[in-house]
Amino acid sequence: MATVKSDISNLQDQAYSKLQVKNGAKIALLVMDGLGDIATRDQGYLTPLEAAQTPNLDALSKDSAQGRMIPVAPGITPGSGPGHLALFGYDPLQFEVGRGVIEALGLGLALKGGDVAVRGNFCTLNAAGLVTDRRAGRIPTETCEKLCAILSRKITRIGTTQVIIQPGKEHRFVIVFRGAGLEGPLSDTDPGRENLPIAPAKPEDPKSAKQKKAAKLVADFYKLALPLLKDQTPANGFLLRGIAHQPHIPTFEERYGLRAAALAVYPMYKGLAQLVGMTRIDGPQNIAEQFRRAVEVYDDYDFFFVHFKYTDKAGEDGNFAAKVKAIEEFDAALPILLAKRPDVIAITGDHSTPCALSGHSWHPQPVLLNSATCGWDKLDRFTETGANLGSLGIFEAKHLIRLMQANARMFAKFGA
Amino acid sequence: MATVKSDISNLQDQAYSKLQVKNGAKIALLVMDGLGDIATRDQGYLTPLEAAQTPNLDALSKDSAQGRMIPVAPGITPGSGPGHLALFGYDPLQFEVGRGVIEALGLGLALKGGDVAVRGNFCTLNAAGLVTDRRAGRIPTETCEKLCAILSRKITRIGTTQVIIQPGKEHRFVIVFRGAGLEGPLSDTDPGRENLPIAPAKPEDPKSAKQKKAAKLVADFYKLALPLLKDQTPANGFLLRGIAHQPHIPTFEERYGLRAAALAVYPMYKGLAQLVGMTRIDGPQNIAEQFRRAVEVYDDYDFFFVHFKYTDKAGEDGNFAAKVKAIEEFDAALPILLAKRPDVIAITGDHSTPCALSGHSWHPQPVLLNSATCGWDKLDRFTETGANLGSLGIFEAKHLIRLMQANARMFAKFGA
Questions:
Q1: Which residues of A touch B103 (CB under 8 A)?
Q2: Complex ipTM > 0.90
């Protein structure tokens, strides 16, 4: 649940919302996904940011402040969900988003507060109802789409609850239960290994009436769905995991008084932005188009979230050269947005994805903050090693939004 | 109220107070108000600390540690009250001090825990009792003093509550209600615009008996005071704002076991020091005299708070040259205190007041910490850019007092 768990951060939030003023300033948050990296011997002790040719970032570094950000907590490697929630100013430990919800967002489903989202795997059952293959031999995506269509045609509603079924890759799919009075989390129906029956989904909190209602709904869904699949091979059953509700998250506008636009190419990031109430601007297919579109809608919004995926992709592949190239592509497109001179610009990642690790990591990502009020940190480039020396220090990523607001002069003075 | 609201900081406080030992060491906290600044193009990318000639601070930097401090929370710009509470080790979000209290302190009134302090403006009322000028045409200070004298002469007490009235500049004055069982905050009696009647002061929490008592007191005060002003022109009424009580703050000695002396020139800072139970040492009119006086009373105290106002004044005026000059004046006087070799010296600001912003700001202020145990950070000068590289890092200002105590060897080891 999205309750605030810490008194100090509660006092901080109260102070921020009391001091907040609207002044029409424009703020841009430019996220190079997985930007942060580490300098290792195999890469000649350079990070991709250090190796890349970045004339536009270099120029911007003059007049900018720098620092590094801890995405969740020291040593914690975040997924895209927590990484972005932190950038949007929501403590990812307080606002936890279930795997089913993330999966649904990743498939492009727009979720509403209270929705219960579930990850599904098609599986194989024997005559006795025991699971013989938990992934049904990894059926092709087309088969998955066909099976989901069968279910979707017959099951659109259970009682007053709407049921939305969306195929994913191979054996994976997502179910969203949309109705009043539902809540997760429930236990998985996946027994975890073969030759066991499908487990019932049980409320994590046995006293929660909402969780009980959700558990009943899952059981009813099985009763309706299993008969529809009984003649299919090899996928004649399914297992459900990560059954959780979409938390009621205060929107970006409620929290910061900012009308926010999201310019992302990938559904997951559009979804994460929608989760906090940003407006998604669809259409652009690359970073230059994203910046151009931001410029087109510039007058209609106060805050622009621009997401660039390819730094993370290259990092995940352990492809140093590709990560350098992605940074250079971002740098080359940057002037399109800079022409508008947003009052505040932050450029950062949602986490680090070091090439040497071929995956997300816990290393604080570098951040550059540019405004008329930030001062210059005497750093000529934007790099990890440079950012270590910046005036922003190393701080929790959830504070970035507050620094952006401060730089936009959106806070009154606290106390006399 | 000044209750401890955070469990973690509660645990920290408990640990500190358990580990604390008295050893007779001397600690000096030297505050150049609004010291922090930013490097901008217009100032040749130098801060006043970088531009100033500071031979004594330079010499002290050798053997010192440096860092930067967040006064309240990331992005929050503090007033003098919260800025100083943090330096004194009190979380300004937990120990909030009302506007009336700050105003009273600024006029040199010594407040006691439980006092309800109120900001007043003389105003003009028409025959129907509607406010026609909320500032009574900004009457001269002498008129304000005359009106306050009229009220003070007749109203010294309401029931068992003492009433203290103190004139300020122009139409401004302060009332302090001193008695048992009172509490704020109450709503303002200022209707906020002309042609409305004086509003009643209402409890913020309608269930609070103490707030109700305070509201009744304010109503009774109006009944006594308005008739005394009825023949005055143009100031025949008054509006009250910021009606709040002085929180019960644990004293400096209770909290840190330190007898503290405050050497300040301006009443506001004497008042803030008294708020936490420091002894004010009156007399000195400039920084050299303040240091000399500190040396004279050196044996009677463990902790010396020395406040220097002119860096902030220059910053507020956007006067770079004046801020440089103020820093040089402070630097020139410093050897008077250094001759005594206090065991621990911290030099910092209560916040930043960048010349480029002509006002307080959220930028972390630099801090220099000198003791036999701090180590040298290899920094030859005390500047913002240097402080970014220091061993203290960027930390919340409320922790400075603990670092000073530690450097004074005032904490036993925690755990075996």
A1: 416
A2: no
